[in-house]
């Protein structure tokens, strides 16, 4: 029942009976139990039919996004229906922060919300790096990006420090889970999400679960090789997708081709929207590279939906024109006409919301519909440690 409500969203009891193959009486009894526990609600949609939705009115969850250049954390308070955010930029030499900083930030958010640690149901951490299985540490080739996380078993270490359940995953995996739960992938059995901003990551959701593979690296489309003789990637290979469509190579391509300097990918997108032909061209080319990578991935996992998130996703048609024009995507659609490539819907919040979804799943809870208060980022205050 929980899985059906998570994957399909609000549903009638008749639809739940069909999906779960349970009797109407059994479904009714389970719904009554979920309502008594405060985990579900029934609301009418017309004069004759009602739908069941997963809700939560218990405790609080903190979701933390650890990037190379910054840390963003949010506390979701389900009792008072409020959200608290904090943002910390990192300077040179402090890339990725540290486990101690995450512990301190969680404590600070709990205090700001007027809660105690006993009110905290759990913490989710999204790392801008793959987490190896079964060790639970940042994979070896990404440790230079996050030096103070080397050999740290992320979930176990933070769980011991905080005294609450902790789940940890790659940031793109969590963003994929959020988009599958509440965004572009809702209702699909096979969903591929690609996050493209400062770096490029991917997450694959199969049958309602993040698919991590045997070593935890499933979905890492950013390190799919497009050009064997291409630029060297920080993973050690040449010609990875990351070396063509991440922020730094796009800026470098623009400067080399047009002699134009831009300080960020956001600036390139803004200039392209303002009519700058060179900026528009590099975004078009980035879209074509994405198209090649998507076509290769689709042949392996045949997703129903591929969603593009991150800054490149926000560029919209500036990138999608190139993506849709790629020969590989055109050929793919002749044999897989139902494939849908879409913009992600949750924006920059996707990883934090994915952490929320992952922790609620871990706790045996869920939200069929994301409440408005949980979407609204509070004025993210700075933090000094």
List low-confidence stretches: none
Number of separate structural domains: 3
Element string (H = helix, E = strand): HHHEEEEEHEHEHEEEHHHHEHHHEHH
Tell me the radius of gyration. Answer: 21 Å
CATH class assignment of the largest domain: Alpha Beta
Write the layout of secondary structure elements.
Elements: H1 2-8, H2 13-20, H3 24-36, E1 40-44, E2 50-54, E3 60-66, E4 70-77, E5 82-89, H4 99-112, E6 120-127, H5 154-162, E7 166-170, H6 171-182, E8 190-196, E9 200-206, E10 209-210, H7 242-245, H8 247-258, H9 265-273, H10 277-301, E11 305-309, H11 310-314, H12 317-325, H13 327-335, E12 340-343, H14 350-362, H15 372-375
Parallel strand pairs: 3-6, 6-7, 8-11, 11-12
Antiparallel strand pairs: 1-2, 3-4, 4-5, 8-9, 9-10
Helix pairs in contact: 2-3, 4-5, 6-14, 8-10, 9-10, 10-12, 10-13
What does this structure look like?
With 385 residues, this protein is of the alpha/beta class. It folds into three domains: 2-54, Orthogonal Bundle (Arc Repressor Mutant, subunit A); 60-174 and 348-375, 2-Layer Sandwich (Nucleotidyltransferase, domain 5), CATH 3.30.420; 188-344, ATPase, nucleotide binding domain (Nucleotidyltransferase, domain 5, 2-Layer Sandwich). The chain is 40% helix and 18% strand. The protein has 15 helices and twelve strands. It has helices at residues 2-8, 13-20, 24-36, 99-112, 154-162, 171-182, 242-245, 247-258, 265-273, 277-301, 310-314, 317-325, 327-335, 350-362, 372-375; strands at 40-44, 50-54, 60-66, 70-77, 82-89, 120-127, 166-170, 190-196, 200-206, 209-210, 305-309, 340-343. The strands form three sheets. Strands 5-4-3-6-7 form a five-stranded mixed sheet, sandwiched between helices. A five-stranded mixed sheet has the order 10-9-8-11-12. A hairpin with a 5-residue loop joins strand 1 (40-44) and strand 2. Helix 6 crosses helix 14 (350-362), helix 10 (277-301) crosses helix 12 (317-325) and helix 10 (277-301) packs parallel to helix 13. The longest helix is centred in the last third of the chain and has 25 residues, at 277-301. The model has no long low-confidence stretch (mean pLDDT 88).
